[in-house]
Amino acid sequence: MVENGLMVGAITLDNDRARKIVLEIKELCDISFANDEQKEQFMYCVHKYTSATAIMRLKREFMDEDIISFQSYIDDFFQVWVTLFSSAGCTNYIHFLASGHIAEYMLGWHNLHRFSQQGWGNFNSLLKVHHS
Predict the structure, then answer these.
(1) Phi/psi zone of residue 10: left (φ > 0), alpha (ψ -120 to 50 degrees), beta?
(2) What's the CA gap between 49 and 68, in Å, rounded?
(3) How many angstroms separate the most distant Cα atoms in the chain?
């Protein structure tokens, strides 16, 4: 994003740090949005997104009701997200969620945890700490 000639770069975080930020996002939101309506819309998106991801992170087999709820949360999230950020807010991850690709995978495999790369990511983080 370029604003006033300044470039804001991408920020990458591991999964645990990203979750901690989302849990405290209200404080960041309060100072980031001057418009109260946009702030409310953003917090609505956060609520829908965190509700969906709580389902997606379940370690047990998904029930059909779980998957339907998941996609309903994502659909609600996406409708508001697009009004806030237009196509600039549609990353690959947002596309995977909003298009139904993740829900389709959930329906086919009934669990996402077994395909997680978090263990590999944690191992790489551990190596970075000890070999830096």
Answers:
(1) beta
(2) 14
(3) 49
